[in-house]
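Suppose you are handed a protein chain with no further information: no name, no annotation, nothing but its sequence. What can you learn? This example shows the usual starting point.
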Amino acid sequence: MLLLFESPAGFALFKVLDEGKLKTVEDKDFMSGEAAKKMVKLKKFVKFENTMEALESATALVDSKLDKKLKKFLKKNCEDETLAVADSKLGSIIKEKLGIPCVHSAGVMELLRGVRQQLEELASGLAAADVAPMALGLSHSLSRYKLKFSPDKVDTMIVQAIGLLDDLDKELNTYAMRVREWYGWHFPEMTKIVADNIEYAKCVKFMGLREKAAGLDFSAILEEEVEQNLKDASVVSMGTDISLEDMSYISSLADQVIELAEYRAQLSDYLRSRMQAIAPNLTVLVGELVGARLIAHAGSLMTLAKYPASTVQILGAEKALFRALKTKRETPKYGLIYHASLIGQAAPKLKGKVSRVLAAKCALSCRVDALGEAEGATIGIEGRAHVEARLRQLEGKAQAGAAGVKTPTGAKSYDKSKGDGKLVTAAKSYNADADVTMAKSDDGEKKKKKKEKEEKTEEEDGEKKKKKKKDKEVEVEEEEGEKKKKKKRKTEEDEAPEDATEKKKKKKKKSEE
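A reasonable first move is to predict its three-dimensional structure. Written in structure tokens, the prediction is:
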């Protein structure tokens, strides 16, 4: 019998010297190298050429598959021998493909554990200093393979990037408002003429003092109309004069605003590329910003993939949800997903329904992005088309309901074969007798209604009489009961003094005696 042993360095075949001890393998048999050599003996050992070959063999063994290297190794060295293996599935595959009988039992596992302890003594070519780094490198490679690790698919970069993007928006807003307030003392009319903050900062940097505005060309920054308005306002401005030192500090602050705006543009491009690499289906559905915020709020793409569609729908509206549950009001219909373009296209009354459909497709897309191996955004494209079709359907129903249009039921189509411009059925003549019958039928219906009313009133009167009789009987019974009680009380009071007199007479007789 041969024993197959897999190590980080390669495959080894050991000859089992005493097959009878397989049922009762003890720790004493492998306490030392000499004792281990009495149990097994190395027959053949094949080293892995590089880490990639070791990784391929290890992944095949983990999945209970037969590797090419192992197949060749067993064909050469396992003729007319039974093979003891650690995996029963691998043993069945070896038996089917190579015709080698395989054995798997608890004794085989104990034997492999003993061989692993004394591997350095049994395999003379292997040293502990060589096996340890091989095992470490193979473990790292195997873990990367199992987790499908790729540096392009690290969602922590998305979490950090979207957080930094939000912080940059806040800082840009505060800095731009500070530039407007500071420079507004010198040129207050410019705040209304130039609305964009970045263009305002660029104009401040390019122009400096307002007196220079008339002789400068702002075509690279502003449009022609805005440029002309700015130049006209600079001539008649009511702002105060400032020194060159003040202007230098204002221009340095404007430089920071421009630099932050450029860095934000680069960061948004980076975030877009990361999202298309990590979550392409989610990006197609809701866009890179909303998708990145969903991933950041969940913590990771894998965590987001584990959420149901109902959780994805209200993700980001937790405070409103718990407040509604506490006060027993309506729960929120959407959270971060509200900022998606598909929900923005919907009417206010339809936003809840569209957000529910979109959340279902987002949950499916997240699972495909996190766990699927296929590249591209096919699921996301199909899901977006489905949501758009559903939106059009809901809008059509809403428009039909607003117009009061009802689809006719049982309407007959016009038949051209029966005549052009003629009625399909012949016109009926006027029947004067029908008026009389209608009048008669109307009188009969009135009589029936009167009879029904009279019967109802009679029934109600009868019920009232019955109730009155019952009430009178109850009152009579109560009066009789009260009279009987009064009679009993009188008899008891009459009997009480007689008993008292008899007792007094008895006492007198006893005293006389």
